[in-house]
Backbone:
C-alpha cells in the first residue's frame, strides 16, 4: 500500500476497536484499490496485526495496550474529543466512514467522542455500527442502545447492522464463518461507498443520500437495525445479470427481513472504463426488475481505470422512519446491599466518577522485523512500543 | 533416601515459572516455623515469554526438568508445590470493605466478623475474565477512626478492612497452574511474584516503613511497595532482562544467544574511566563470524534500557502518589540486579538508598540466598510457610470447636 498517496484522500475509513479492525482486514483482502484507513484501538497486539495505514493506540494509561476484552467500563470517563496526537492524522479528511461494534468494548466507549471531534472539524461522518447478538445479554444490548443514542446525536448518518441476522441465515451453523461474512459485507459496503465518494464517480452518491436513506441525528430511527447489505462481483459477458443475481441472493439478505423492513435502497457500482451512463441506467433497471419489492433507489457509480469487463456491486437496503422516539437507554439495576455490610471502593475512585479525561493517544510505529516478543502481549507505555530497542526509539547513536 | 513429611518437620516446595529459568526450592519447616533451605533446582526455561506460557509443551518439559533437578539435589519427593505467578495481565488495586459487629456479641470483633469481611473482599466485582489471586490485608479501621492490625476482641460498631487485591486473567493463570498440575503435582497455593520477592528480601523494618522492592526478571519487572507491614501497591511492567539481550543483539548485530552471554558475563550500565576506548571481541564459531565493537556501545544499549525501565517504575510510583511514601530504601532483586553498575544508575533515578536484595531468614544452604534471581522462589517458600501456619491454626480452632460441641452434647445428654 502506498501510504503517502492515500494520506491525501478526502474520504477516510476509521475503524474503532476490534470489530472495526476486522473490517479493515477484510477490506484489504476482499477489495481492490487503496483507501485512507485509520485504526484506533486499545489493543496493541491487534493493532500490530491490522493492515491500516495509520494505527493509533489509545488509553494505554488505562489498559496498558491489552484491549478491553469487551469491557467498556475499563475506559469509563475517557474521551477522544481532544488530544494532539490525532490532529495530524485526521487533517484533510472531509468524509469519515467510522466502523465499529457498539456492543461494549473500545468502539462503544470511545466512538461517540471521536465522532464529536470529527464533527467539530467539519467532517461529514457516516457510522457503520454492528450490534451484539441477542444472546450476549441485556447488559450489552443496553450498552449498544446507549452508544447508538449518543452516536445518532452527533453523526450525519448511522447505519446499524445486526449480528442476529447471522443466526437467521444459513450461516447459523457456522457462526465464525457467518461473522466473517458480515465483516466482509461491511468491508465491501465501506469500500463501495468510499470509492464512489472519493472518486466523485460517474454518478454521485454522498453523505446527503445516506442521510436521506436513514434519517439524520436525533430524529432518526429509534429501532436498532436499519441497514442490510449484499455484495457481489462478476466479470466477463453477462456480468451485470450475474452480479444482480448474486447480490439479491446474498446470504445476509436471504432471511427477507431487508425487503420487509427496509424502505430505501442505495446501490454503489464500481466498473471498468468501458461502462457508459446508459449501461449504468440499464443495470439499475435490471436490478429494479429483479428486486422482490419496489423501493426508491439511490445509486452511485465510479469508474476504476484498472478494471476491465468486471463489475463490483454493493446493495445497501436501509430503513428510514421519521420521528421515531429514541429508545431510552436501559439503566443497569443497582443491586441492593445489606445495611450492615457494604463494599466500598477507595475515596479516590469515587472522586474520579463523573469526570471526563482525554484518553492518551499516539501513533504506533512498530518494528516491522519479527521480534523476540512477537508472540507475547505487547509492552506499551504511552504510545511507545517498549518491545523495540530503547536506543532505537531514543535515537541514540551507538559507538560500534 | 526420599524425604517425607513427618509430624515434626514439614517439607515445603516452591516453584517459580520464570521466563529464563524455572526454579524449584525445597525447605524444611520446623514446628516453630523456622525454614531450613535444603536446596534449589533449576533448569533453562522454554515456552515462556514475559512470565507467561506461550508454548505449553515446552514450558511443561522445562518445569519437569526443574522439579527433577530439585528432587536430585534435595532428595525430597515432590508431590505438591506452591507457585509464584507473574505477567502483565496481573492488575492490582486497593479496596475497602465495611461491616458491622453484632449486638449479641456486645459489638466485639469476632473471627466471624473478620471472615465475613474477607468473604466480601473475595467477592468484589471484577472484570469478566479476571479472578482474584490475592487479597492482601492492609489493616482495619474501627468506627471510621482508629486503625488496627489485630482488631480481634475489640469493641466497635463498624469495622472497615482494607485490602490490596491482585487479580489476573483466569485463562492465563489456569495455563500456568496446568503446566505443573498436568504432571500429577498438586498446586497447593499460588502467590504473586512481586509479593513473594518482598517476603524474601525484606525484614520487619523494611516492611513497616515505605520500601520499594523491584524484581528485575528476565521477562517482566515486578514492583511492590510495602508500608505498615503490607503491600500498598504492586505492578508488573512488561520489560525485563530479555529486552536487554534483544537490544544488544540488534544494536551490536550479534546472535541472541551471544547477546545473552555477553550481558551475563560483561554487561554493565556504567562505563568506568579508562574503558572508553576498550574493545570487546566475540570470537567466531561455526555459525557466527565473530564481531568486535567498543565496550561503550554495549554500555550505551544497556544503560538506555535500564534507565528507561527504572524511570517507568519511578513515574508509576509518582502517578500513584506513592513516591513520597517511600521512606527507607529501594531494593533491587531478580537476575537483572546482577548487572554491573545498576545500583549507581538506580541511585540517580531514585534518590533514596538503593541496595541489592538478598533472601534472608533461612537456615541451611546459604550460598543460594546470595543469588538475587532466587528471591521470588525463596519468597514463595515463606508464603508457603505462612499459609501452612494459618491453616494449622484454623485446624486447631476447628478441633477446639469440635471439643466444645462434644462437651455441649454430653452435658445435654446428662440433663436429659
Residues:
Amino acid at each position: 500500500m502506498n501510504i503517502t498517496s492515500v494520506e491525501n484522500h478526502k474520504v477516510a475509513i476509521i475503524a474503532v476497536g476490534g470489530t472495526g479492525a476486522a473490517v479493515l482486514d477484510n477490506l484489504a483482502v476482499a477489495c481492490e484499490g487503496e483507501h485512507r484507513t485509520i485504526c484506533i484501538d486499545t489493543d496493541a497486539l491487534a493493532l500490530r496485526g491490522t493492515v491500516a495505514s495509520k494505527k493509533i493506540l489509545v488509553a494505554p494509561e488505562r489498559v496498558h495496550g491489552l484491549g478491553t476484552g469487551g469491557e467498556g467500563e475499563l475506559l469509563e470517563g475517557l474521551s477522544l474529543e481532544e488530544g494532539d496526537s490525532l490532529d495530524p492524522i485526521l487533517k484533510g479528511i472531509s468524509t469519515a466512514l467510522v466502523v465499529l461494534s457498539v456492543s461494549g468494548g473500545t468502539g462503544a466507549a470511545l466512538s461517540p467522542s471521536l465522532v464529536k471531534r470529527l464533527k467539530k472539524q467539519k467532517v461529514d461522518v457516516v457510522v457503520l455500527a454492528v450490534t451484539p447478538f441477542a444472546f450476549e445479554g441485556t447488559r450489552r444490548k443496553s450498552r449498544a442502545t446507549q452508544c447508538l443514542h449518543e452516536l445518532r446525536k452527533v453523526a450525519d448518518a448511522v447505519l446499524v447492522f445486526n449480528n442476529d441476522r447471522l443466526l437467521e441465515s444459513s450461516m447459523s451453523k457456522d457462526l465464525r464463518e457467518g461473522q466473517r461474512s458480515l465483516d466482509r459485507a461491511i468491508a465491501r459496503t465501506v469500500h463501495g461507498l468510499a470509492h464512489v465518494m472519493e472518486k466523485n464517480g460517474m454518478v454521485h452518491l454522498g453523505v446527503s443520500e445516506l442521510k436521506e436513506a436513514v434519517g439524520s441525528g436525533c430524529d432518526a430511527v429509534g429501532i436498532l437495525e436499519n441497514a442490510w447489505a449484499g455484495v457481489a462481483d462478476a466479470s466477463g459477458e453477462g456480468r451485470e445479470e450475474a452480479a444482480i443475481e448474486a447480490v439479491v441472493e446474498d446470504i445476509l439478505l436471504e432471511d427477507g427481513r431487508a425487503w420487509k423492513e427496509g424502505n430505501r435502497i442505495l446501490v454503489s457500482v464500481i466498473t471498468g472504463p468501458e461502462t457508459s451512463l446508459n449501461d449504468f441506467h440499464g443495470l439499475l433497471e435490471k436490478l429494479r426488475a429483479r428486486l422482490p419489492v419496489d423501493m426508491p433507489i439511490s445509486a452511485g457509480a465510479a469508474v476504476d481505470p484498472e478494471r476491465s469487463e468486471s463489475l463490483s456491486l454493493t446493495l445497501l437496503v436501509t430503513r428510514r422512519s421519521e420521528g421515531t422516539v429514541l429508545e431510552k437507554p436501559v439503566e443497569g439495576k443497582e443491586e441492593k446491599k445489606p445495611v450492615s455490610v457494604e463494599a466500598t471502593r477507595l475515596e479516590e475512585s469515587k472522586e474520579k466518577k463523573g469526570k471526563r479525561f482525554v484518553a492518551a493517544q499516539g501513533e504506533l510505529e512498530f518494528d516491522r522485523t519479527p521480534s523476540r516478543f512477537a508472540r507475547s502481549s505487547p509492552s506499551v507505555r504511552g504510545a511507545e512500543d517498549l518491545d523495540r530497542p530503547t536506543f532505537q526509539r531514543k535515537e541514540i547513536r551507538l559507538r560500534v | 533416601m526420599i524425604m517425607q513429611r513427618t509430624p515434626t518437620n514439614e517439607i515445603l516446595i516452591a516453584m517459580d515459572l520464570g521466563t529464563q529459568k524455572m526454579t524449584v526450592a525445597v525447605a524444611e519447616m520446623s514446628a516453630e516455623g523456622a525454614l531450613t533451605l535444603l536446596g534449589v533446582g533449576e533448569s533453562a526455561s522454554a515456552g515462556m515469554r514475559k512470565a507467561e506460557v506461550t508454548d505449553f509443551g515446552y514450558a511443561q518439559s522445562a518445569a519437569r526438568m526443574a522439579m527433577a533437578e530439585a528432587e536430585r539435589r534435595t532428595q525430597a519427593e515432590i508431590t505438591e508445590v506452591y507457585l509464584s505467578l507473574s505477567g502483565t495481565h496481573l492488575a492490582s488495586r486497593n479496596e475497602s470493605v465495611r461491616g458491622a459487629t453484632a449486638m449479641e456479641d456486645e459489638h466485639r470483633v469476632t473471627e466471624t466478623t473478620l471472615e465475613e469481611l474477607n468473604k466480601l473482599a473475595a467477592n468484589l466485582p471484577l472484570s469478566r475474565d479476571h479472578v482474584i489471586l490475592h487479597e492482601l490485608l492492609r489493616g482495619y479501621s474501627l468506627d471510621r477512626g482508629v486503625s488496627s492490625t489485630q482488631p480481634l476482641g475489640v469493641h466497635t460498631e463498624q469495622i472497615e478492612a482494607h485490602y490490596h487485591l491482585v487479580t489476573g486473567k483466569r485463562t492465563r493463570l489456569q495455563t500456568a497452574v496446568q503446566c505443573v498440575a498436568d504432571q500429577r503435582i498438586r498446586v497447593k497455593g499460588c502467590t504473586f511474584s512481586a509479593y513473594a520477592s518482598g517476603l524474601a528480601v525484606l525484614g520487619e523494618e523494611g516492611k513497616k516503613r515505605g520500601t520499594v522492592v523491584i524484581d528485575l526478571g528476565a521477562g517482566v519487572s515486578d514492583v511492590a511497595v510495602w508500608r505498615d507491614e503490607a503491600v500498598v501497591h504492586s505492578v508488573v511492567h512488561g520489560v525485563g532482562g530479555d529486552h536487554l539481550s534483544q537490544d544488544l543483539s540488534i544494536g551490536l548485530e550479534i546472535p541472541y544467544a551471544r547477546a545473552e552471554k555477553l550481558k551475563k558475563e560483561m554487561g554493565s550500565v556504567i562505563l568506568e574511566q579508562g574503558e572508553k576506548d576498550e574493545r570487546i571481541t566475540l570470537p567466531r564459531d561455526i555459525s557466527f563470524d565473530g564481531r568486535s565493537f567498543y565496550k561503550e556501545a554495549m554500555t550505551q544499549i544497556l544503560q538506555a534500557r535500564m534507565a528507561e525501565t527504572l524511570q517507568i517504575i519511578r513515574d508509576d510510583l509518582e502517578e500513584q502518589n506513592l513516591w513520597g511514601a517511600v521512606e527507607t530504601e529501594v531494593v533491587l532483586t531478580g537476575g537483572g540486579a546482577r548487572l554491573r553498575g545498576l545500583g549507581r544508575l538506580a541511585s540517580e533515578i531514585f534518590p533514596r538508598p538503593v541496595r541489592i536484595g538478598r533472601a534472608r531468614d533461612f537456615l541451611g544452604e546459604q550460598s543460594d540466598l546470595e543469588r538475587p534471581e532466587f528471591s521470588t522462589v525463596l519468597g514463595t517458600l515463606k508464603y508457603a510457610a505462612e499459609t501452612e501456619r494459618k491453616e494449622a491454626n484454623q485446624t486447631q480452632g476447628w478441633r477446639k470447636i469440635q471439643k466444645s460441641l462434644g462437651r455441649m452434647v454430653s452435658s445435654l445428654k446428662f440433663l436429659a
About this structure: The longest strand of chain A covers residues 227-235.
